[in-house]
Design brief:
The complex is a heterodimer of chains A (287) and B (263). With 287 residues, chain A is an all-alpha fold. Chain A has a domain of 196 residues: MetI-like fold. In chain A, a hairpin with a 5-residue loop joins strand 2 and strand 3. With 263 residues, chain B is mostly helical. In chain B, 77% of the residues lie in helices and 1% in strands. In chain B, helix 3 packs across helix 4, helix 4 packs across helix 12 and helix 7 runs antiparallel to helix 10. In chain B, 48% of the residues are buried.
């Protein structure tokens, strides 16, 4: 649609700007403020320059949690995106089962995050939880509170359970927007289901999948409550993702300077990666 | 065969939920004492406790209040902004749109402490309004994004015809435009509801007693007694209900919400 040039449109955007600026800019400036200062309590602050940034960038603790975070995010993306597409492809397009499927699939999305964590914690307990008990009965030595591998398995399974539906909803939305005529044309041309997927369905889903990847990327990078309630970052530090580590430093040890510097680096990493994702996928679309 | 895939997936989704619901009907002794697939000693005791204790049920009331305020506020400010983005070009519009989206990328953990200080400074701490306002950080950008998509689907001729017919802008917007994109408003409201309902970190940071969300009430009980698993399961089960209720109303539109939006 052709848009008209109109600078007065700024007035329409103003309420949103004021609201978001209040919530985003003031706290962000507070963080920036802390990140360049040192405090010994009593509200005395001293200029510290970029000391905290250097400290964080060189600390192995930060590198470790960043690596864990990247491993987590890319693992769940690699599972949830293809799985979501497969499920969306297999879903009925019409009929009474469509709303039933949609409602049941959306349920996990609407459960408060700490309830999700608590629920999976109880579900996976090796002695009284359904999943833990079943795995042990089947002969696996499963205990997510003691063994690192099991903790990761549970964490990833929980996230797949929690968020795959969002990918399904988006991919499904892309699929139902394809007119029937496309399929009929493909049938006349004698296309098999693989080439229908490759040349009709995938291109039509590209835009919603971009949204899905971006949303899942941003949200999984920010994840805090669910893993915190599920494993508390343990056993040891093995599932301490970035936000968990950040909250430990900021509220647990009250090291405001390092915590603020880490926040900013964390935020920049997300921004940078989102931008890379965004440009890569947009370039693909143009080709 | 093809139908088996969604069926298995839904079964996988339902298992943990079933476990939670079945535990909520068990007395704590049964949960801890033995492994039972369904309640042997069926009890409603856990639910009775929640509905008779104000410190429990007020959690639900508090959550519902701030979620409603947040949804209304987010949609109200997002409407004119989305209209501007979908109809006009103006200085810095693309940058502004991306900047709005970056706020969704900000980890809540980063903002927890500064939020506490900011809201204490403007003496909003421990009010429903504080949580509602804080949640606009991630809900307003999302609402603008969804509404913009729906509005761009409405042809501009609608606006022009209304002006020719002598409608003023506010009159046109409220009487004609808003009803036209009703589905979009429903979807945006649904996502605002959802993200405000499930968020805990900010909700917990900004409240103490008067506006404490149900999710925070649950963490407290879990840590202080630690053994009231049945009660915890009942409280958790009750948090699923409002969401299920809201989904039912927008079931035909949820899928469309993002499909029409732009990145």
């Amino acid at each position: 649609m052709a848009k008209t040039e109109n600078q007065k449109a700024w007035f329409f955007v103003l309420p949103v700007l004021i609201l978001v600026a209040f919530n985003a800019i003031i706290p962000l400036m507070t963080v920036v403020n802390y990140s360049v200062q040192e405090t010994f309590g009593n509200n005395d602050f001293f200029w510290a320059g970029v000391v905290w940034f250097e400290e964080i960038l060189h600390s192995s603790r930060f590198h470790d949690s960043l690596m864990r975070q990247l491993t987590f995010t890319f693992t769940i993306l690699a599972i949830e995106i293809p799985l979501g597409v497969i499920i969306a492809l297999a879903m009925p397009r019409k009929g009474p089962w469509v709303p039933v499927c949609l409602i049941l699939m959306s349920l996990p999305l609407l459960i408060p995050w700490n309830v999700v964590g608590a629920m999976w914690n109880i579900f996976a307990l090796p002695d009284i939880g359904m999943l833990g008990r079943m795995l042990n009965e089947m002969g696996f030595d499963y205990n997510f509170t003691r063994q690192v591998g099991d903790a990761w398995f549970t964490l990833i399974l929980m996230d797949v359970w929690h968020w795959t539906s969002l990918v399904v909803l988006l991919a499904y939305a892309g699929l139902v927007s394809i007119p029937d005529a496309y399929y009929q044309a493909a049938k006349i041309d004698g296309a098999n289901s693989l080439s229908i997927f490759r040349y009709i369905q995938l291109p039509k889903m590209k835009r919603v999948l971009t949204i899905a990847v971006l949303l899942r990327f941003m949200d999984s990078f920010n994840i805090y409550t669910e893993p915190f309630v599920l494993t508390g970052g343990g056993p040891g530090n093995s599932t301490t993702l970035l936000s968990i580590d950040l909250v430990k430093i900021a509220l647990g040890q009250f090291d405001l300077g390092p915590a603020a510097a880490m926040s900013l680096i964390y935020f920049l990493v997300i921004l940078l990666l989102s931008w890379v994702f965004y440009t890569l996928m947009m370039r693909n679309e143009e080709q | 065969m093809k139908r088996a895939i969604p069926a298995i997936y839904i079964l996988f989704l339902m298992l943990p939920i079933y476990w939670l619901v079945s535990m909520s009907f068990k007395p704590t002794t049964e949960i801890l004492g033995s492994f039972t697939l369904w309640p042997n000693e069926f009890t409603l005791e856990n639910y009775k406790t929640i509905f008779s204790d104000a410190s429990w049920y007020m959690g639900y009331v508090n959550s519902m209040i701030y979620v409603s305020i947040n949804t209304a506020m987010s949609v109200a400010v997002a409407l004119p902004a989305a209209y501007a983005f979908s109809r006009y070009r103006f200085l810095g519009d693309k940058h502004l749109f991306f900047w709005l989206l970056t706020n969704r990328m900000a980890p809540a953990a980063v903002f927890a402490l500064p939020f506490f200080q900011l809201y204490s400074a403007v003496s909003l701490f421990d009010t429903h309004f504080a949580v509602a306002l804080a949640h606009t950080l991630f809900n307003v950008p999302l609402a603008v994004w969804i509404l913009e998509g729906f509005m761009s689907g409405v042809p501009k001729q609608l606006d022009e015809t209304a002006y020719v017919d002598g409608y003023s802008f506010p009159h046109f917007f409220v009487k004609i435009f808003v009803p036209t994109i009703g589905a979009g408003i429903g979807v945006a409201a649904f996502f605002c509801f959802m993200f405000s309902w499930v968020e805990l970190l900010l909700g917990k940071t900004l409240t103490a007693v008067a506006a404490k969300p149900i999710a925070a009430t649950m963490t407290k009980t879990a840590s202080s007694s630690g053994y009231e698993l049945g009660l915890l399961a009942a409280a958790g089960t009750l948090t699923i209900i409002p969401g299920a209720f809201v989904i039912y109303f927008v079931r035909n539109y949820i899928a469309k919400g993002f499909a029409l939006g732009r990145v």
